[in-house]
Specification:
By secondary structure, the chain is an all-alpha fold. Helices cover 64% and strands 1% of the residues. The chain has 12 helices and 2 strands, in the order H-H-E-H-H-H-H-E-H-H-H-H-H-H. The chain has helices at 2-15, 18-45, 54-57, 61-74, 86-92, 94-121, 135-143, 166-194, 197-209, 211-216, 219-226, 252-273; strands at residues 49-50, 128-129. The chain has a two-stranded parallel ribbon with strand order 1-2. The two termini are 24 Å apart. The mean pLDDT is 90. Keywords: Membrane, Transmembrane, Transmembrane helix. The chain crosses the membrane at residues 53-76, 97-125, 169-192, 198-218, 247-270.
């Protein structure tokens, strides 16, 4: 119970700070920019858009890489040695403190993903079709190149419509992205304990930049490389769409299994490492 209480309090500290505010503003600006063509098409067609456009914006490379840069920026407070945490570590103990930090990373990851999703819904208001159907607008956009008339870099993948409802796809995308964010945050925490903050940021940037070779390698080899690059899995809306005849994204069970096992393994390493390190508290904002 004490661990849960500390995790909750720690999560609030991780959510309500200046870095989160910067991330929220970034996602609102990016969201408005990337869904504007859909809004313009909606106005021209005089028909509301489905509220579920976030999974498709995540398939736009520029939007996706900016999302990951934002996530890394927010998690750059690792290894959580700000002076405000000193009393917490003394009171709850080292291991509970570390587990509380990881729990806070998970809750913050959910908030980060939800903020990004909201940033793609708000610009479409009030002309939104609030239903669990894909609607005529997105189906038309998926079956034609009409969005290119509005200089859109967002592609609507028709094949996913027969696999998931909007609610299912949105839930899957949010949960998957939240786990990838958690994986990234815990990796940064572990690297900062093993080495330093610079190594943590560098390692997470390498994970994000790995998007480049995955997207540019031959489709025959892409599925092999994609198995080890969680950052690209946020493009889950493309999972039913072949690229030059090849399905290259890993299966959904593989993605969740990889992330959960990876997070648990890194949590175990952190729990062991935290017993041996010397805490160097910093006078730095959370």
């Amino acid at each position: 119970m004490k661990l849960l209480q500390y995790t909750w309090k720690n999560s609030m500290m991780k959510i309500f700070n200046s870095k989160m505010a910067v991330f929220a503003i970034l996602m609102l600006v990016m969201g408005r920019t990337y869904v504007e063509p859909i809004r313009q098409f909606s106005i021209q067609a005089d028909y509301p858009s489905s509220w579920c456009v976030f999974p498709f914006t995540m398939c736009s490379f520029t939007y996706l890489i900016m999302f990951w840069f934002g996530v890394i920026y927010v998690n750059s407070d690792v290894p959580f040695m700000q002076h405000v945490n000193m009393y917490h570590a003394i009171r709850v103990g080292r291991q509970r403190w570390a587990l509380g930090q990881i729990g806070g990373i998970f809750i913050r990851s959910i908030v980060l993903t939800v903020l990004a999703a909201i940033g793609t819904i708000l610009p479409l208001l009030p002309d939104i079709e609030w239903s669990n159907e894909w609607g005529k607008l997105l189906r038309t956009a998926a079956m034609s190149n009409v969005l290119t008339q509005f200089n859109s870099s967002v592609l609507i993948y028709y094949e996913i419509f027969s696999e998931f409802t909007p609610l299912q796809l949105m839930g899957l995308t949010i949960l998957l992205c939240a786990l990838i964010c958690t994986f990234t945050g815990v990796l940064m925490f572990l690297l900062s304990l093993l080495f330093n903050k610079i190594a943590a940021v560098a390692g997470s940037l390498a994970l994000a930049i790995a998007l480049f070779p995955v997207l540019n390698i031959h489709p025959l080899l892409r599925h092999k490389l994609a198995l080890f690059v969680p950052a690209i899995w946020a493009e889950v809306a493309r999972i039913a769409t072949p690229d030059y005849g090849y399905y290259w994204l890993p299966s959904i069970p593989y993605m969740f299994g990889f992330l959960i096992v990876g997070i648990l393994c890194m949590t175990a390493f952190v729990s062991v490492k935290i017993k041996k390190i010397e805490f160097n508290w910093e006078n730095e904002d959370v």
